[in-house]
Amino acid sequence: MAKRTFQGMNYRELQKANSQIRSQLSQESQKLLKASGLKNTGWDNVIALYQRIQELLDSDRVSEDLSLEELFLEVDRIGKKYQTQEEIEEFNQKLAKEVAEIGELVDRQFPDTEPEIIDFSKPKPRR
User: Fold this and answer.
1) pLDDT digits (tens, 9 = 90+) for 115-125
2) Which residue windows are coiled coil (predicted)?
């Protein structure tokens, strides 16, 4: 019977990797991992735990490296993978409508009462 491996690691090596990598997670991610109930025993559990730790480790790195704007863009990009084209278009239409309504409210609250004057005449030469 051939030994089972996962990503080149046997059972014991995978358990050890889980223990070592877990310590690299943020405190919040470690709490999420503990709440998930995954255990480091049993071949399938060890693999599932390894994969979940990798996901949390990646999300910790992403949140540390990205600005808030970049994080929102990344979330939007990931979310669009799970939406149909119709859902995306519907959302974009609703968003455009909301933005237009907000723009109208801003214009009502802060009307532009000063006329803007642009002088296109040629400047007089200096002597």
Assistant:
1) 888 888 877 77
2) 81-108
